[in-house]
Amino acid sequence: MSHEQPDIVYLDHAAATPLADDVLEAMRPYLADQFFNPSSPYLPAFRVRQAYEQARADLAHSIGAKPAEVVITAGATESINIAFASTRGHTVATAIEHASVLACAQARDHTLVGVNGNGLVDPADVAAALRPDTQLVSIGLANNELGTIQPLRAISAVVAQEKQRRLLAGDATPLYLHTDASQCAGLADVNVSTLGVDLLTLNAAKAYGPKQVGLLWASSRVRLAPVLFGGGQERGVRSGTENVAGAVGFACALQQAVATRKDEARRLADLRDGLQRRLCQTFDQAVVSGHKRHRLPSYLHISFPGLDAERLVYLLEERGVLVGTGAACAANKATRSHVLEAIGLPDDVADGSLRLTLGRLSTEENTRRAADAIIEVVQAEYDRVGAR
Amino acid sequence: MSHEQPDIVYLDHAAATPLADDVLEAMRPYLADQFFNPSSPYLPAFRVRQAYEQARADLAHSIGAKPAEVVITAGATESINIAFASTRGHTVATAIEHASVLACAQARDHTLVGVNGNGLVDPADVAAALRPDTQLVSIGLANNELGTIQPLRAISAVVAQEKQRRLLAGDATPLYLHTDASQCAGLADVNVSTLGVDLLTLNAAKAYGPKQVGLLWASSRVRLAPVLFGGGQERGVRSGTENVAGAVGFACALQQAVATRKDEARRLADLRDGLQRRLCQTFDQAVVSGHKRHRLPSYLHISFPGLDAERLVYLLEERGVLVGTGAACAANKATRSHVLEAIGLPDDVADGSLRLTLGRLSTEENTRRAADAIIEVVQAEYDRVGAR
Question: What is the pLDDT of residues B63-80, one digit of tens each?
Fold first, then answer.
């Protein structure tokens, strides 16, 4: 992060975040001297095991959980897959979940609940989608394209009510609430008690930590089942030699994210709001998607009807401004975003959409520079296509 | 690796290898500036994608394969699980496979083939275990406790014969040969054509590369199936944001391992043979397990009947010598090794077993020092228990 290119304005923090310097520093011993297999029988290996377990404890502490409830994984996709593998029966999710949740849900009996124009799900719709055989509700804490934060507490209450009904009816069918909070560390509250969930997925790579590291938190009520079979690490839930450097880096990154959240969220919201104001004042036709208030402070999803987002990305890149158009993993598939479809954005609006996501690399100066570039490019494109 | 503790003699390279300096150097840009999501739509992200694809090409080249046939995974356990998920029906494996292969095999209809006292499987036994519904034969190239190298070519011929039989009988049931070669990079030939396999697993962490990175090579005849559902990366086989730094590091490590294999294998075999000679000359009762010739040059599995290996590990550690007792992932489970059971080692011999594995940290000087320490400790223990 110390090496950021000075000329580039990075507005795609939701796709990837740079590794924080002190995170890399924390990882370094485990990329050098402390390379031992934590399962080896001698003291230096035991020390590595201790560092790994300390990382687990720190991760747990950062989300208000117990260490024994945290499984360290190879990323959010794996966490989500374990959450799904640990439950059976019917699943309820929203239509705007990340590809990983959608793919897991679509592999079994499921109901996708719609969202409103802001990308917000109505807890009453979740309640209506619950069936007697529903065992999992999986709803992302914040949508990864719009940044809309879902009313998890209210959804948790709906789930609790159904649990209560089953209890009274003597029905032992379990019901769990999972949230993929991958986009949220450092930007929204990811405390598991506050959220009222049973399972929570987090991703280090979205929080200035290393790539290919994640966690799955599961309350002790949930019996986790493995996706991979093997050496039985992570108490049998996640086999494979432990990624000590990754876990230590993730723990450091998450601690920082949680510690700086309130200040950083305020800072980013100010920058974001300024950017949004300038763009909307300049372009009457611009459409901002995502909830006005219940939105990650780093997110600005803005559409320029009639323009081609891919051209905008290219033209902005020529000016040193890097922006996204949607989820990075879907972006190169040349398909229209299922999220924008779900909120009912007309095609000509959706096709001109940029996902601008601010973060630690954002400053007042470079956000202003980005605004200048976006205005210049969008204006030139509207002039070119003659739509303004 | 530059920081190795000068006083410690590390004889557990099979459990973990230190990250090579130039491997970390190769990874560094992707741990810093080049943090972009390879699926993002701008040029700096595309360059990261190119580096990732170059790593895949280099990995493929190192094993004599085509880039499109290589899936980059989060480690050997995941590779093995994908290999199994991609095949159905009856499976044949040996009784001495790594926990991961055993766990996958045991989750379905399978036959475990025995091995002889050297840990060698007889291809005729594999042939006898094949059934009309067998679709996968999974046999580790070298056993991870003994270092015994299996006759993969001969087993490949057995598999080819059964394929031929099915072809002539008009039977379309597929049959694939998978090998877990995790212990072998840099120590044995891992060229897929030479081995005659259909699927091959490798692990970066055992070859001076980063932890939690592996590969699964599959010939184009094999249709791979995912274990994890998600964003569809790695052509749908392995979803999850790509670990670019890990892949680049693995490619660098594997290239080095392959390039230096012959010289390093000779060097290690000399050191190992010297160590073995000294220990066996000093202790008549010492039992060396593993095949005399068909053995990884880095391996010395030696048992001291009547002694307790865990005490030996502890006493050796006091003298700065780090050794293993078996597979690291099984070592802390306080169960007797399934490998030593399979080769028919009596319990009192098995319980006094050390797995000494040499590697890049081994020198003539420190291997001699290790031999001195082992002789001292084993002698003291025999004196103490009065068995000599």
Answer: 999 999 999 999 999 999
